[in-house]
Specification:
With 289 residues, this protein is of the alpha/beta class. It is built from 11 helices and 8 strands. The protein folds into 2 domains: 69 residues, SRP54, nucleotide-binding domain (Four Helix Bundle (Hemerythrin (Met), subunit A), Up-down Bundle), CATH 1.20.120.140; 193 residues, 3-Layer(aba) Sandwich (Rossmann fold), CATH 3.40.50.300. The chain is 50% helix and 14% strand. Strands 3-2-4-1-5-6-7-8 form an 8-stranded mixed beta sheet, sandwiched between helices. It is elongated and about 65 Å long. The protein binds guanosine-5'-diphosphate and magnesium ion. The site of guanosine-5'-diphosphate has 18 residues, from helix 5.
Length: 289
């Protein structure tokens, strides 16, 4: 789909720079999941800037478009700070890839950053399968998993994880959460409770609340981000399934609304299919540069 975006962009860029050109550009941006209001905003800026700077060539316009979209995007490297307990809490609706992402993030910090003492926390107690799934990721990546039985209090599981990690002097906790409860209010209350427990249990902490979004859900991802951010302030996002029929326009869309960075991009189901998010690479791929 990314390919198709840049191909379509190529077609637009071979036409004359007239009002039709700007309309086609707007349609294309909406199609690629940037959302109508952001697409209009970007095209307005492009129109204004090209007038102001007397940009006449298609190449010039393309590079102006790149600058405009880049300005919305926030890239940040997720880091494990040494000498303290780091806790990354993964949030997001069912099926977006939270549990899979935890396995891959564990693998990333171990293999790329040499972080040895990682513990996985089975905070999704809502589904029995989620606990087993996390245990499998623990085995594969050679990390300890703290879990309780299906239906247990997720806050208690995460509290136990923190206490044992402190006792064992571990570096990093990767905590899973349920994407669904009996209703939405329950889920929000649960997340607020977990948040309080973490804030109280770790003194000098590097605590990040990370939202996982499936980019095949398009603009729906923006609604999810707004809702989770309202419940517990989100620090950053992991975008999964970028290898599937995804358009990726959700990235500038979420960044512009919430002013939060993207940390990683998931490009497949394997343990190594998670890459740190790189703004420059992303925008070049999007625009076919
Ligand atoms: N193609 C692809 N599939 C993914 C990616 N990330 C996760 N998945 C798949 O999405 C499905 C749901 O993942 P899971 O981690 O169980 O989601 P959770 O409910 O949020 O914990 C699984 O089949 C994963 O293998 C990705 O980046 N690309
Ligand atoms: Mg899960």
């Amino acid at each position: 789909m990314l390919k198709s975006f840049s191909n379509k962009l190529k077609n637009i860029f071979t036409s004359n720079i007239d009002e039709n050109f700007y309309e086609d550009m707007e349609d294309l941006l909406v199609e690629s999941d940037l959302g109508a209001s952001l697409a209009i905003e970007i095209v307005n800026k492009l129109r204004e800037n090209s007038k102001k700077n007397r940009i006449k060539s298609l190449e010039g316009l393309k590079s102006e478009l790149k600058t405009i979209i880049s300005d919305y995007i926030i890239e940040e490297e997720l880091l494990v700070e040494s000498g303290k307990l780091n806790l990354f809490l993964f949030l997001g609706v069912n099926g977006v890839g939270k549990t899979t992402t935890i396995g891959r993030v564990a693998n990333y910090f171990k293999s790329v950053h040499g972080i040895e003492k990682i513990v996985l926390s089975a905070g999704d107690t809502f589904r029995a399968a989620a606990i087993d799934q996390l245990k499998i990721h623990g085995e594969r990546t050679g990390n300890r998993v703290v879990s309780q039985q299906h239906g247990a209090d997720p806050g208690a599981v995460i509290f136990d994880t923190i206490k044992s990690a402190q006792a064992k002097n571990e570096d990093l906790i990767l905590a899973d959460t349920a994407g669904r409860m009996h209703n939405r209010l329950n889920l929000i209350k649960e997340l607020e409770k977990i948040n309080k427990i973490v804030l109280n249990a770790i003194e000098d902490q590097n605590y990040k609340k990370i939202l996982v979004i499936d980019c095949t859900t398009g603009q729906n991802g923006l609604n999810q981000a707004l809702q989770f951010n309202e419940a517990v302030k989100i620090d950053g996002v992991v975008l999964t399934k970028y290898d599937s029929s995804a358009k990726g326009g959700i990235i500038p869309s979420i960044c512009s609304k919430l002013k939060i960075p993207f940390y990683f991009i998931g490009m497949g189901e394997g343990l190594n299919d998670l890459k740190p998010f790189k703004k420059e690479e992303y925008i070049n791929e999007l625009l076919g540069l």
